[in-house]
Design goal:
Layout lengths: L4 E7 L1 H4 L7 H12 L2 E8 L3 H14 L2 E5 L10 H8 L4 E3 L1 H14 L5 H4 L3 E3 L3 E3 L8 E4 L2 E4 L3 H11 L10 E7 L3 H14 L4 E9 L2 E10 L2 H14 L2
Parallel strand pairs: 1-2, 1-3, 3-8
Antiparallel strand pairs: 4-5, 6-7, 7-8, 9-11, 10-11
């Protein structure tokens, strides 16, 4: 049986402009691989409501689970929560459960829960809150979409809250053989091996080190014995 599938929607002008380098995709991919959930697609969209709504609807319809990152903070351009409500036809307002979490957090810090901070308690009506032990402001799950902060430490904490609730499959195992040959020499035998093992995924990733050309030949799969067998044959071919 195939593993469950997932997609990620990264939201934010700062990612597309190059001002911020996204670290959350790399982290999520690793966590999902360990959980036996296949991350099949990642999209990045600007802070534009129509684009966010269109993207999340499309991904939600195709994949078992969707993770979003970014746009649930206190500023005017944090529009993700409103977009999620619109995408799934739900109302949105400050919710008492989310307000209580923020109130307790800011009372403890001796900080005012002002109007801007209260924006982070605006949650779609039927969404379930996602715990945020780092900075309190919750994420939320709406249908099969998990809506999370873009700040990496908070994103990681929210992923830790959500993953135990998901059904995974067999973890993805990855092994690498480094070969100091050009890809033109590698392609033929490596392609033949890939055809011989259709249940495994194989990729070639070239590099240049100290004036020498080579490639990392990566083999991925869920069957450890099959993976070991393929790696053995790979080593024989490029010995």
């Amino acid at each position: 049986m195939a593993n469950p599938t997932a997609a990620m929607l990264v939201i934010g002008d700062e990612i597309l402009s190059g001002r911020t380098r996204d670290a959350n995709m790399h982290y999520l991919a690793g966590q999902l691989a360990e959980a036996g959930i296949t991350l099949a697609e990642v999209r990045i969209v600007a802070d534009e409501a129509a684009n966010i709504i269109e993207a999340v609807r499309a991904l939600s319809a195709i994949y078992d689970t969707v993770f979003t990152s970014g746009g649930i903070g206190p500023t005017h351009d944090d529009i993700t929560a409103d977009c999620m409500a619109a995408a799934f036809g739900q109302s949105i307002d400050v919710r008492d459960d989310a307000r209580a979490i923020l109130q307790a957090h800011y009372d403890k810090a001796g900080t005012d829960l002002n109007e801007a901070r209260l924006r982070m308690a605006r949650i779609p009506a039927d969404a379930a809150l996602i715990d945020n032990p780092v900075s309190a402001a919750p994420g939320f799950t709406i249908e099969n979409v998990h809506v999370m902060a873009g700040v990496p430490s908070v994103f990681k904490a929210m992923v830790a809250s959500v993953l135990p609730t998901l059904t995974g499959g067999a973890p993805l195992i990855s092994k690498t053989l480094t070969v100091y040959r050009g890809e033109g020499d590698i392609a033929g035998p490596f392609g033949a091996l890939a055809e011989a093992y259709p249940d495994l995924s194989m990729g070639s990733y070239p590099f240049q080190r100290d004036g020498k050309y080579g490639a990392n030949l990566v083999v991925r799969g869920q069957d450890a014995a099959l993976l070991d067998e393929a790696m053995g044959k790979l080593a024989e071919v490029f010995a």
